[in-house]
Amino acid sequence: SAVFGQVNLNSPSQVKQALQAKGVKCDSTGQEVLKPLAGKYPQIASLLSYRKYAAMLKKLDELKNVHPVTGRIHPKFDPLNAYTGRFSCSKPNLQNIPRDENVGVDESIRACFVPQEGFQFVLADYSQAELRIAAEISQDRLMIKVFKSGQDLHQLTASRVLEKPIDQITSSERQCAKALNFGLIYGMGSSGLAAYASSQFGVPMTETEADRYREKFFDTYRGVRTWHDKEKLNPHREELRTRSGRLIHFAGKGFTQRLNTPVQSLAADLIKVALAILVRKLEQREARIICMIHDEVVVESKKSITGEIEAIVKAAMLQAGEGLLTHVPLEVDISVADSWAGK
Questions:
Q1: CATH assignment of 70-129+248-343?
Q2: Domain boundaries, the chain
Q3: Cβ contact 267:295 at 8 Å
Q4: In 3-state terms, what secondary structure has residue 51?
Q5: What would the CATH number be for the domain defined by 131-247?
Q6: Alpha-carbon torsion angle 246, 249, 255, 259, nearest 10
Q7: Region of 252 on the Ramachandran plot (φ > 0 left; ψ -120 to 50 alpha; else beta)
Q8: What is the pTM of this model?
Q9: What is the tens place of the pLDDT at every residue in 273-312?
Q10: Distance between CA atoms of 128 and 249, rounded to whole angstroms?
């Protein structure tokens, strides 16, 4: 490479040696370690860019097996492969194709997926599904109040943790709060939170800051703290039943997984109920479900009826929550697009 010379960029040991030779001190070449250093070292920014596009090329290579008759990719969806009940997808896996938020729509891998001529995609997903379910399970009064009022939970978290008026929260501070909300509902520790904030949200955070933010977070959301404390008192629990009555065995799982399991399990039930309702609603209409990604549904609809299908999809996904979530309202983000990248 022009930046590193004769170095195998896919070899962590060679990359580490090359970085150290250029004066970059790092214990590993993992994303969580290198991303915070990218602003200071152009070599690391170039390396991360290479990794991103190499991963995109690898994913595109997996998508080359288009059926010669249908012109489509036909993956395998397994509704019971994960112990939580979430769908898995293989041959190829369409559930790990990134949204590519940092590139233009036309550069996204999802832009390769387009409807047949005369059709459009109706793209729908549950807004902040895991946070809403965590609020439902923990019965945290403040979280429930926020979701019922339509407030921005991330802004509120930033305001409480940073002790600033909510109308003065910046976009970067809101991004920090997203890391706290999504990381701490599952009991992430301070060191893990600092790494998670940096690698997943681009937010630099010291372990000392993470420790302080954790304390303020759990002081703010006391219902979440109580939920976590109860789970700590029952470390040998081996099973649970979801609100739909499904039995899940999770013996031997760690603390984080025992918090994550009821949330993901309820989310899995929710999307399955939504799909079942939607299949019936789409009968006799020129529209069909063509893909689902955990809490997202992709429907291919004839252009002339996309408005009608959009309303049907949204209503079906909201109806699925009746009986599963009784205190926290669901929201569905929905749009019509000419490619999967259009959302």
A1: 3.30.70.370
A2: 1-62, 70-129+248-343, 131-247
A3: yes
A4: helix
A5: 1.10.150
A6: -10
A7: left
A8: 0.86
A9: 999 999 999 999 999 999 999 899 999 999 999 999 999 9
A10: 26
